[in-house]
Amino acid sequence: MIKKCLFPAAGYGTRFLPATKAMPKEMLPVVNKPLIQYGVEEALDAGLSEISIVTGRGKRALEDHFDISYELENQIKGTDKEKYLVGIRRLLNECSFSYTRQTEMKGLGHAILTGRPLIGDEPFAVVLADDLCVNPEGDGVLTQMVKLYNQFRCSIIAIQEVDPQETNKYGVIAGDMIRDDIYRVTNMVEKPAPEDAPSNLAIIGRYILTPDIFDIIKNTPPGKGGEIQITDALMQQAQNGCVIAYKFKGQRFDCGGAEGYIDATNFCFENYYKTGKAY
Questions:
Q1: Range of the domain at 116
Q2: Is the pLDDT of residue 279 over 60?
Q3: What's 151's domain CATH number?
Q4: Can you tell me the distance from the alpha carbon of 28 to that of 26, in angstroms, rounded to the nearest whole number?
């Protein structure tokens, strides 16, 4: 059973400057909840209650958010404003939170490796909080992926089709189709130019990884941009065993940039907040 979910959250959020100059990008509010809370709720709904967060300098707001504010609780106790804390109280009651710091930004692979002391020797999920994933009509993306892991027992990455001209923004896979939404990965390239992309199937910020990935990352040399890329490590894992790519059900919003963030806010306002589900 997968119990742990890792949130790499040490990045600078440069695509959203100047808003992220003094505030973690993971704390940007979508309606009335920060991005990272949506991610933790998705993890808990999938049965992952042990939350591990890789932070960095200037990220104390993340720890403060997933903690009790006694002054605030006392101030609004007995008022109609208490309803706004129902969601975060659920997370505090049902999840455990642990933290470590990434002192240098060396890529997503390095961020995941930094979380190794929090994860140990067991399979785990990875969520990139600025990829907000929703599926109002069914299971969340992580729930879908956990069910697949219970079947295949190997690393699983979430993918979606993108405009072929935008492959240089993503890790891109090619693979043998197992069914119309599942591929066995045969190739994986980090941010290829459109003419070099093996397909238009792009990796988004949801992963389930087996623990051997840590040693693979440790032995993975810097790749694209001089960073340690998780795609390079996963390609090695795919060559030595099996990595599954899953075309998930639902929608994904890239909240690392203004356009996707505004789309996510509009969607969540209409589908969650107005119905009371955002509480």
A1: 4-275
A2: no
A3: 3.90.550.10
A4: 6
